[in-house]
Write a structure and sequence with these properties.
Shape: globular
Oligomer: single chain
Distance between the termini: 15 Å
Mean pLDDT: 87
Number of helices: 3
CATH class: Mainly Beta
Low-confidence stretches: 1-5
Number of strands: 11
Helix content: under 10%
Order of helices and strands: HHEEEEEEEEHEEE
Number of domains: 1
Strand content: 15-25%
CATH architecture: Sandwich
Largest sheet: 5 strands, mixed
Amino acid sequence: MSGGSFFQRDRNWHPAAYTPGYKTSVTRSPQKAPISLDNTVSEMTGPVFGHDLIGETDNDLLRNFAHGGEPIGQRIIVHGRVLDETGRGVPGALLEFWQANAGGRYRHKKETYLAPLDPNFGGCGRTLTDADGSYRLRTIKPGAYPWPNGVNDWRPAHIHFSVFGHGFAQRLITQMYFEGDPLIWRCPIVATIPDRAAVERLIAPLDMNNAVPMDSRAYRFDIVLRGRRSTLFENRTEGN
């Protein structure tokens, strides 16, 4: 495999780097023209993730941080498949996910929102896709939270997803939103996305066929890596 052999990305699918409505982009946007760098063989082929790195409860956020109690909030299942541009499942992809708790607060030392921490909820996990690209996780539906972008801006409820291939350079990051959330269309970050269809591919529909009665609702979120139906990834203009 030679350097730079990955498919080129469609930059028109992504938000402009400089979008003043999203204030952080003002300082983060590049000031000079981008430079394309080829990947080295080591970046594309290693290190390889093994199944033995995943713990039994890593994909169960209801259990992987519990300290003798149940997390507070609406219990949900999120499931789906990681697919390539032809619709084939991608096996063995490492998924990492992190989120705020039911009150909209992250477990992070720099968190400033006043909502309380949940002593039984850590807010992060990981899993590997199976032979047909499927994955599944259990968690609490995250809450919305305010952020210092505008006078009264709120982030809609969302879960962050990181998708690894078989090396650290093969990483894509995205966010999953929830069907019916009115804050999606008011979010300054979402507003930077030029194509409504791209936004809609970030919204997970309710999937009551996979819900657990008297326990958990379910949402389906498929992640498409490339092609015309690709999921929008936050770092695609920078990485692979």
